[in-house]
Structures are given as C-alpha cells and as structure tokens.
C-alpha cells in the first residue's frame, strides 16, 4: 500500500504545481462535534418528527414500496404511509454505523462512518464556467475535464454525481457514456443517479466489470452510491423509490437527503425545517432497511433558507450552519453516517463564494460530517460548476484536513533543545529542528499568491481567480488515465456499445 501511495503522489509530480498538494489520504475528525442544541431539545425534534410520521404521514408514489411497507407494519392509505414510532426505531436499528466503500483500486477504498470524512467534487450543475471561457451549457468535454481534475486533486475522494451535466449526450444513453468516462478517467469511488431502474442496473454492472469481481462480491462489497432526495414536503417519488429498491437490494450505498428550504418547502423556523428534514430522512432510511436489512445508508442534511425577497435558495448562511450542526446530532442519535455539503449562493469566484463555503464546510465538519458532498467546485446555488472554484475548494479542504490533524506533543516537538540552541534574539530558519520538519509539517496552499511587494511584477498581482485558472490548466495537463486491465476495459467497452445499440433507456424525447 505504501508503494501505491507513493505512486499516487508521484504521478502528480509531472507538474510542479500539482506536486505541492498533500498526498491522498482520508481525514479523520479529531475533535468532539459541536452540540448546537441540548439533549432535551434534540429529543423534542426527534419526537416532533415521529408525530409527523404517525399523524400526517408521507406519500410513497410506488406500488411496490407501499406493499413492502405495509408488510413491514406501516399503515397505508392510498399513497400515504404512516409509521408508528416503534416501527421507525425497529427499522432504522439495522442500518450500519460504519462500512467500507470499495474503490476500483483498493488504495481508493474509503470508510464511511465513525470519525472518517469523505470529500466529493461538485455534482449535477447544468452549467459550467472557467478556463477563460464564460458560462456555458454542460457538455461532455467539460464533464470529462472535471472528472480528470477530480482524479488529480488528492483532496477529492470521490464524485457525487456528474460534476456538470453532459447535456450534449442524449438522456437515453447519457448514463452509459458518463459512467464509462467516470470509470476510465478516474479510479475513485463512483456514483449513479437514481433516475430509472435500468440506469441503476447498468451502472452497478459497469462497476462490477471495472472492479473485475463477480456478482456475489459486488453484492457483498459496497462499490457505488446514489443520492435519494425526498420531494419536500413529505413525498418520495417513483424513480427515487426505484433507486432505493435497486441499490439497497444490491447492498450499494443510498444517501437519503431531504431538500428542505426554510420558508419555501419547509417551515420558516430552523427547528421546524429540521423536524421536516428528520421525518423525511427517517422514512427514507427505514425504507432502505425494509428492502434489505443492513443495507448501507447515510443520513443527509440539506436544510437551508431562502431569500424571502426573491424566493431564491440561500446557502452558507447562519441558518445553514445551525442546521448542519443539528443534522449531525440527529445522525449520531440514530447511529448512521452523516452527509452534508459545501455550498454557496455566489454567481462567481469571489469573496462571497469563499466565505459562504467556509461557513458551510465548518458547519458540516464541526457537525461531525462523514460525507461532504459538493466539496469542490460549486457556485450559484448549485447551478454552476467552476474549474477555478474546484481548485480553490481543494485548497480549502486540504487546510481543513491539516487543521484536523493531531498536534504532535513529544520531547522532540517541544523543542527545548532547539530553543536553547538559538537563545535570545536569534531565529530558527536554519536550525536542524526546522530543516528536518519544514517539508512535512508546514502546509502550503496551492492557490496562495502571497509575495512581497518588490516581487509583484513577477506575478504577485494575480488574484485568486486568475491563479486558480492557471492551476486548473496545469492540473488538467497532469491527468493520466488510471490503468485498467485490458480484459476489463474490453468488457466494459463492449457492454457500453451493446447497451447503446439497444437504445439505452426509454425517455420522453
């Protein structure tokens, strides 16, 4: 494994700028998460959520799901499903607290749960900007480029969807080409959208081929994930439920994520929005365990507020930060991994995008996040993917990882001898204590453009966006397609060719 780790970091050295990034690693949460509400207040949110599920219920727009839930003990009346509190507790009790996400290459394996943290790239924007070009529709070229950037950047552990939607690919076959690109341009843990049964089935089979394992292994080892959004308020639609049925039955990860915007699809108070988020999350998690007890699942929090003047979503706000913290408390109460996001509402790579992202990330991390979606590259409330923001966010995530690293406190680190060696009025630049540790203990951001005034004519005037644009070009140039055995690649190519020839999946156009 150490040899492979060296190869991962060594590959980046093909470009000087990429060599500056820390090596591939999965960060750990070293501090106690912040408790934003007391135990009594958390219990009040929990009990209010159970009342919603028992008294109001939630719509499940799928016959199979309603039948399965009725057989499990839920009350079903038309589309409406109601849950007794005891049934909710019984069902969610089988959800695992921690599990392994198996990468195409074992070095890319990740742990989800406990104190482990996973960062993802941005997912699902319809538009893209960057590399010196203005905002444009999502397309396959930019999709492939952003996959490449995510492969090279060690701070990005996995995708969380298409980093931009490749809209020049027809929807009937888009998932085939996009998944093929995802599996050949990167060896990091993959994703599938739950937009039809066949799309889920195709993606699971493609991942099985790329990993070179049999069906028994893929059903035992979680190797791909999908996000399921409740249609807030209080509804799970058909394709989302089909996604749970296909993925959970195959032991693949489902991230249940209500999209609760306070003042719009959820109550305007943070507490009320969290009650709705929690009720929807509990219903979704419970259903994954109806499909397959022990199936991997994550509690997703995505509660924010809207700008009441325009109705537009607002992100990276104080309300979002508070909801991140409480979402983590709720996930820990139920003993399941917690998903949150790096978000902002800015239209460009500017100060607003930076400080809103910092608020969002810190709310997620201090809330005990395990899966940080949209970790790098998100702009404009999720409508826009940005190359430059991906570079800047990767730097920010590297800083967070370094901040979470334990402080070394031993005789050597306490440096008493070094202090005696320098004495009064000296400096530590040249001491052996400094020289031995400089390259390993001091984090250097890639995007930092600091230099003294005398050197400004050498490029010091570059602002963060301009420097990030230069770095994005270098990162793309550093990409190398990760190796895949010839027989697997041939089988993968042939599978895609066959499914494309068959027409992919049915669409309305």
Detailed description of the structure:
The chain has 509 residues and is of the alpha/beta class. Among the domains are: 26-32 and 93-404, TIM Barrel (Alpha-Beta Barrel); 411-441, no CATH class. Helices cover 45% and strands 13% of the residues. The protein has 20 helices and 19 strands. It has helices at 2-12, 16-19, 39-56, 63-72, 85-92, 140-152, 174-185, 197-211, 215-218, 238-249, 270-291, 318-334, 351-366, 387-404, 411-414, 416-422, 432-435, 438-441, 464-477, 486-501; strands spanning 58-60, 75-77, 80-82, 98-101, 110-113, 118-121, 127-130, 133-137, 225-228, 235-236, 253-256, 261-262, 297-300, 304-306, 313-314, 338-341, 371-376, 378-379, 384-386. The strands form 5 sheets. Strands 6-17-16-13-11-9 form a 6-stranded parallel beta sheet. Strands 2-3-1-10 form a 4-stranded mixed beta sheet. Strands 8-7-19-18 form a 4-stranded mixed beta sheet. Strand 7 (127-130) and strand 8 form a beta hairpin. Helix 3 packs across helix 11, helix 8 packs parallel to helix 10 (238-249) and helix 11 (270-291) runs parallel beside helix 12. The longest helix has 22 residues, at 270-291. The chain is globular. The relative contact order is 0.14. Residues 1-15 have low confidence and may be disordered.
